[in-house]
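Hi D.,

Good news: the full-assembly prediction came through. Inputs first.
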Amino acid sequence: MNTRARGRHVEVRVDRGLPTAFEASTPSPGPGELLVATRAAALGPDDLKAFEGCVLSGEFAGDVLAVGPDVASSLVGSAVAVLGYRPCARCHRCLDGVSTACADIGLRGRTIDGGLSGAVLVRTSDVMVLPPGLSHEQAALMHRVASALRALHRGPASPGEAVAILGGTPLALATCAVVLAAGSGRTAFVDDHAGCRAVMEHLGARSLERPSEASGWEDLAVWLGGYGADVVYECAGSAESRLEAVELARPAGSVVLLAHDDTPVTMDLNLIVMGAKRVRGSCHYALSDGRVALDLIARSLVNAAALVGRTVSILDVLADPEFLDGFTDCRATIVQWPASAEVNLA
Amino acid sequence: MMLAASWHGPKDIRLEEIPTPHAPTGEDVLVEVSWCGICGTDLHEYLAGPIFIPPSLEQVVLGHEFSARVAAIGDRVDSAAVGDRVVVIPHRVCRECHFCRRLMFQHCRNLELVGLTRNGAFARFTVARQDQLVPLPDTIPDEFGALVEPLAVTFHGMRQPGVYPGADIAIIGAGPIGLSAVAVARAVGLRSIIVVEMLPQRATIARQMGADDVLDPREVDALDAIRGLTAGRGADITMECVGLSETMNLAIRAARPGGLALLAGITEMPSDVDLNTAVRDEKEIRGCIGYFEGEFDAVIELMASGRLDPSPLISRRLDLDRILGDGFDSLVRDRDSCIKVLVSPSTRHGAAGGRIE
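Then the structure:
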């Protein structure tokens, strides 16, 4: 069927750990809602960890197909990017302006349906109209660039300051691109994944394997300016990596934690107290971060091309459900969804 | 020779006669100590040191919270005169290293600390450099001068980004630093001050110094109670002033989403820390130690203006010869009623009011 036939559409859900196409009836947007036809989505190695049954991808951009009764009809046909999470807009935290810490947050492509779909229902408050000249493929990178921008706001690296990024994840790569765009000085990336290191080197960071000896970390601290990094962005999320991040930050330096992990970290807290260090969590991003991210990508101020490993069609994805296997170098796979793609659901 | 209280190792502080410092040279100043407080850091060194004391040091005269009078000056001193009443900043910095050039003096790579890495103020005389002296106005008594240092530690905390007038603060622990934090928080306009403290006399003093609510963690779940007092959110700021794993985690968890947890307590062993709450709720955890230039002056200004009354902090005043039994040992034994012990090694105070009160 055509992936966007009248009244019906195709959506790609996780079924037994693999992306699988399903036909669904297309909903009509209600008050405050838009119906968006996805044109491009970004996928990474973690995306198949989505909850079983979820529509894939929290990073997508598309065109507005229809609007709810109280939404300006002029939006129909607009190209938009969609917030990668859905705050409840009702809890204490949302009402206090901390919607990134919403008590009932939905993560698109993980805990709620994402965007790899011929038709996605979203709230008007969750979309950003694309700036002129920005393609859907580029806009699909908004989520990771905005998350990195958020981390940069949480632990600002001033121009010229020494930065370390720990952990080979897509967010680490975006963070590297953003801090380099912001004029960071010496920038080091530490991870054991050779593919990720090669990408970071290409961006302009010095890349090295995770040192196994204390002397390796000391050498890195010396390279970073003698006393450690001004800011460390910790993207791996493990207890070990978090401890290394705190140790690698210079006195009065900052550590930004971007990844989730419930394991407590056993550490000598005097490292933080006596070092007057700052440890800040960074979680998701605000709509304003998203808008700035789109603008930075549109004006080529962030090297977005370096964040993309390959571009495939939705038809290729459905033809080879294991297409993500072995592609783990932390760059995005961009999935294009042509306006009139035909999918054989048989 | 002069009497001094010297650290020789854990549980080994000795009252002993040591040579009086030589006449000062260069920018150095000889000061006669008026009052010197026993700090929690001194107590940590006494019980579990060396922590700040260099392991290579066999002996050092403790005491870094003090007021004094200038007794003699070196030949290049141009900002102090004999007889000046002063408070002494214990940091003796190089002003040349990476951190000094960025005005982060407490991280000076060549930092010397009076009373920890060089001889301090539990003796009649000690030596400082002229840039360590802060004038004490006539309106502020010498005893209060000895409280400027711990108050400056908490004032430094209250000057961190994320602390703003009208914010709520939960202070974990009402020891000398926690109570100083209460006084400073009140002086700088924080709105609601919640204190978590289980010892009854400390709780009373916390109220006396301006706490709005004091929670006894043996009677209530402190985390739930803090959230209950802050409309379910958690405090805008928390400040940990104990140095235990449980209290550090309480400070982190009790900060609201987007809030700030200041850690001021020195720990004696590694802790299991819940960092994921900081990620999920975008909290900031910030180590709080020392002070910046100008913060001693600001504390003195707050005292002079009447906005900061530190008198409830003072538990005892002692002559130096009583510092071991009635000072250090009392602070260990009687944590509830013994908050800040001031010691006078000076004959001036010793003759007039140096007995235990």
